[in-house]
Amino acid sequence: MREIRIQRILTNTIFKQLQDIVGTANCSRAKEDLACYAYDATARTYMPDAVLFPQNSSEISAILRLANKHGFFVIPRGSGSGMTGGSLAVSGGVIIVMTRFNRILKIDRENLIAHVEPGVVTGHLHKAVEKESLFYPPDPSSSEFSTMGGNVAECAGGPSAVKYGVTRDYVLGLEVVLPTGEIINTGVQTAKGVVGYDLTRLIIGSEGTLGIITRITVRLLPLPEVSKTIIAVFDKIETAAQTVSEIIRNRIIPRTMEYMDNASIRCVENYLKIGLPVKAEALLLIEVDGNEDEANRAANELKTLCINRGATSVEKAMTKEAAANIWKARKAISPALFSYGPDKINEDIVVPRSKIPDIVKKINMLRDETGLCIVSFGHAGDGNIHFNIMLDKQNKDELEKAKTAVEALFDYTLELGGTISGEHGIGITKAPYIKKEIGDVELTLMKNIKNIFDPKGILNPGKIFP
Question: How many Cβ atoms are within 10 Å of 234's Cβ, its own excluded?
Answer without folding.
Answer: 26
